[in-house]
Design brief:
five-stranded mixed beta barrel; 9 helices; single chain; OB fold (Dihydrolipoamide Acetyltransferase, E2P); 195 residues; 2 domains; 19% strand; DNA polymerase, domain 1
């Protein structure tokens, strides 16, 4: 998998851009939140990436921050949410605004994003609520820590096939305290094995 690219921007036509890296032009799609911070054509930039392999294409997505890429990856794990809708969400609101909407269960904020209907917004609120609860295990004062070890452990457990609510429960049972992502995953899997 391609994790990041550093190169010269050779073309920008939102939501697509071409990045020249070592003589190879990589075509990427990026949310508007990333486009707003891109330098001019010809300038060098480093973008984090996520590769989506489909039956008919391999599509590379670029992000200006780890928070954007992490939210994109969480969104495409939600049933019925594909990369296009995830990109629209990231283009229509900031990562912090999205988490605030989920925390306050604000459907109207999500439906204001083009391409997000009421049913999709409801599904997002239900599925992302558990992920937000895990992220808040590591937060102080209710602010979301998107890049927390708890959030990464949650994503790993879901990738292993645990349902969101089950992953949340296992991580809460792993015990409070400061643990690395690996330690949290190990404790959660040990807890699941004992059940």
């Amino acid at each position: 998998m391609i994790g990041s690219l550093r190169g010269r921007i050779s073309a920008k036509t939102p939501p697509q851009l071409t990045l020249e890296v070592g003589g190879v032009g990589y075509e990427l799609e990026a949310p508007m939140s990333t486009f707003f911070h891109l330098p001019v054509v010809g300038a060098e930039v480093r973008l984090l990436t996520h590769l989506v392999v489909r039956e008919d294409a391999h599509v590379l997505y670029g992000f200006g921050s780890e928070d954007e890429r992490r939210l994109f990856r969480s969104l495409i794990r939600v049933s019925g949410i594909g990369p296009k809708i995830a990109l629209a969400l990231l283009s229509g609101m900031s990562v912090a605004d999205f988490y605030r909407s989920v925390h306050s269960q604000d459907i109207s904020a999500l439906t204001r994003v083009p391409g997000i209907g009421r049913k999709t917004a409801e599904r997002l609120l239900v599925e992302m609520r558990d992920r937000l609860a895990v992220a808040e295990l590591a937060s102080e004062g209710g602010s979301v820590v998107a890049a927390s070890p708890e959030g990464e452990a949650y994503d790993a457990l879901v990738a292993l096939g645990y349902r969101p609510a089950e992953a949340t429960r296992l991580l809460k049972a792993a015990g409070p305290g400061t643990h690395s992502t690996e330690e949290l995953i190990r404790r959660a899997l040990q807890g699941a094995a004992r059940e």
